[in-house]
Amino acid sequence: MDRNKKIVKISIQGIIVNIVLVIFKAIVGFIANSISIILDAVNNLSDALSSIITIVGMALSGKRPDKKHPYGYGRIEYFSSVIIAIIVLFAGGTSLKESIDKILNGGDATYNIASLIIIFVAIFVKYFFGSYVKREGNKLNSSSLVASGVDAIGDSILSLSTFIGALISFIWHISLEGYIGVIISIMIIKTSLEILKDTIDDMIGIRADGELTKKLRKLIKSYNGVEGVYDLTLHNYGPNNIIGTAHIEVKDKMTAREIHKLTRNIVMDVYEKLGIVLTLGIYSSNDSKYNDMKKDITKIVSKYKTVLQLHGFYVEEDKNIVSFDLIFDFEELEPVKVKDEIVKEIKKKYPKYNYIVILDKDFSD
Length: 365
Ligand SMILES: [Zn+2]
Description:
Oligomer: single chain
Distance between the termini: 34 Å
CATH architecture of the largest domain: Up-down Bundle
Strand content: 5-15%
Strand order of the largest sheet: 1-2-3
Number of domains: 2
Number of helices: 10
Order of helices and strands: HHHHHHHEEHEHEEHE
Largest sheet: 3 strands, mixed
Bound molecules: zinc ion
CATH topology of the largest domain: Alpha-lytic protease prodomain-like
Radius of gyration: 29 Å
CATH superfamily of the largest domain: Cation efflux protein transmembrane domain
Shape: elongated
């Protein structure tokens, strides 16, 4: 079964589980006149709704790429996550208001043994189902599934507090309903804001996952003839659709034919092993003749603390041109000025060369 079908299947299970819970809790809640149990039911209803949105999102994001959208529709998944988060936020806000009303205006809930048993069973159903959804979501790299799994586990803990409140009221006839409701609401609101923040970060574009870039660099470096991997960038169009670029450094004696073969092999291998569509650029490196000069210049550069890396060092012997790239820390506000200073200092030591220095960004680890 492919990823999309699995996600849809789990989401449908989620809808069924939640609707069954909604029915039972709503009945118990109304009979017992318990606001916290009714809120619990509303919360389950919003979970069912988010599963429906996940399915709709999957169906839309799985559409084939076309001329106008050659990168596919994968980013629609981010929109469905935002909509889910807003629904959960709304549910949290409503229950906060209801709970505060309850504290201010009072009203007694009356429980019986049957309703306590139903709430108790619901806690376990929700907990185990939530763990299952979270586990599968991680396996399938689906942020919507992980979010709803985490949400469900949180809900089960909140239901536990509802249960304890009901139990206390059953035994000692003290009403904690409103207070428990406030705590539940605040936790629901907190979860929704976290999902919202993560998803919006994904939409804005965040630093690529360090584990992934490490793996990718290692794979490219493992090829004979690759002396270094630099300027790695990754962009995604949905969680499982990543496009990237990188520079590799090779000896300047390599022929186009050899480079062609090398880069093709790397690109194919990266796609097969990591599913990343990679484009490579080439830096050439000198033979050992210029090693000392490179070391010297690296040493000068290393005195400037906001420079994170020097790479792509190359001396064009016949033209007396030295070129290299510098990566500055994002904290550095005037990289161009610092670069000019660095070049000035290098020129004192190696006056016969002209310097071409490109400023790269610190895109990935
Ligand atoms: Zn570079």
